[in-house]
Design goal:
Elements: E1 2-6, H1 11-23, E2 27-31, E3 52-55, H2 62-72, E4 76-79, H3 86-91, H4 94-116, H5 120-125, E5 127-133, H6 164-183, E6 187-192, E7 194-196, H7 205-215, E8 219-222, E9 228-233, H8 234-247, E10 253-256, E11 261-263, H9 264-278, E12 293-296, H10 311-317, H11 325-338, H12 340-348
Parallel strand pairs: 1-2, 1-4, 2-3, 4-5, 5-6, 6-10, 7-9, 8-12
Antiparallel strand pairs: 9-11
Helix pairs in contact: 1-8, 2-4, 4-6, 7-9, 9-11
């Protein structure tokens, strides 16, 4: 099979590309605009593989999308291209509307017109898999505020997005389902919990904490740090996405979670303890990595808890996460400790944005 992966140079997208090339005989066309978070260095291991091709294309560019569909003739679209940082969406929502809503609409239309011209057999094989987030559901009761059994997000949970980011992703989810209902485009949606792991762009919590700690900089924690997230190791997510794209049922939704609910402060403390073990030599000015924790004003509209019920994908597709949070966070910290040059190039903007890998 031939997969068109949008956003394939991003954190999750690159994990999907690596998984397909390294673990299957399928082919991948990586379509990515290469914004600040798109990093081709995360794909050096597949760059010269004959089953891999790269197209630098904006998903809002219909003419270029039509060219890519016509040239490469994909069997499956895995749509991961998105603006995804909540803080950026609060300070500048326009990019999120343009990419996540307008871009998804443009991609759906290009896919629909391509699919419509396929022969009957290839039409039946074709899939459009839209990858989304649990943030579209809003948030859940916090254990500090509830004495009853705590609920989880299921595939039928009502949407109640809180941020411009999650609202734009909710809109894109609705578009995908509408294109299936109205036009018959064979779509599938998946919603995931917080991802972490190697190659994560250093603006999200876990890579920021690791890199700041190693540099002796403050570790900023919003509010009290008691916001709870379900943490999913990125390679587990990549396996799940391939399962959904190849075995999922058209029109269905699959929630993908790591079964690892942790408060943000607990995540930060775990990283600090691992660094004491793995990187005991510290910059001057503090005794323990825990001393660097700094509490800052909370984010506007900050969701208090996310938690995924991933029983459907386990029951129907046979997927469940391999990594516990303890094993996954150790692998993540070890990866960052072993990849200082990648981190430095990403932070200073000198990493390669062009095909061919590192500078």
């Amino acid at each position: 099979m031939k997969f068109l992966v949008t956003g394939g140079a991003g954190f999750i997208g690159s994990a999907v590309v690596r998984h397909i090339i390294h673990n299957t005989q399928d082919s991948v066309i990586n379509l990515d605009k290469l914004t600040y978070a798109g990093n081709l260095e995360s794909l050096i291991s597949v760059d010269n593989n004959p089953r891999y091709a790269f197209e630098q294309v904006d998903i809002a560019n219909r003419a270029e999308l039509d060219r890519v569909f016509t040239l490469h003739q994909p069997d499956v679209v895995m749509h991961l291209a998105a603006e995804s940082h909540v803080d950026r969406s609060i300070s500048g929502p326009n990019d999120f509307i343009q990419t996540n809503i307008v871009g998804t609409y443009t991609l759906l239309e290009a896919a629909r017109h391509y699919w419509r011209e396929l022969d009957v057999k290839r039409q039946a094989m074709f899939r459009f898999h839209h990858i989304s987030t649990d943030e579209v559901y809003g948030d859940l009761p916090h254990p500090n505020d509830s004495a009853t059994e705590l609920p989880l997000f299921t595939e039928t949970t009502s949407y109640a997005p809180s941020s411009p980011y999650s609202a734009s992703k909710a809109a894109s989810d609705h578009l995908v389902r509408a294109w299936q209902r109205t036009y018959g485009l064979p779509t599938i949606v998946s919603n995931c919990s917080n991802n972490y792991g190697p190659y994560h762009f250093p603006e999200k919590l876990i890579p920021v904490v690791i890199l700041n700690a190693l540099a002796g900089k403050p570790l900023p924690i919003y509010g009290k740090g008691d916001q709870i997230r379900d943490w999913l190791f990125v390679d587990d997510h990549a396996r799940a996405l391939y399962k959904v794209a190849t075995e999922g049922v058209v029109g269905e939704t699959y929630n993908i979670g790591g079964h690892n609910e942790k408060a943000n402060i607990e995540v930060v403390q775990t990283i600090c303890r691992l660094l004491e073990e793995l990187a005991p030599t510290k910059p001057a000015g503090f005794n323990q990595y825990l001393d660097l924790i700094t509490y800052v004003g909370d984010r506007p509209g900050h969701d208090v808890r996310y938690a995924i019920d991933a029983s459907k994908i386990e029951r129907e597709l046979g997927w469940k996460p391999v990594e516990s949070f303890d094993s996954g966070i150790r692998k993540t910290v070890e990866w960052y400790l072993s990849n200082h040059q990648w981190c430095s190039r990403v932070l200073d903007g000198s990493y390669s944005r062009q095909p061919g890998g590192a500078n």
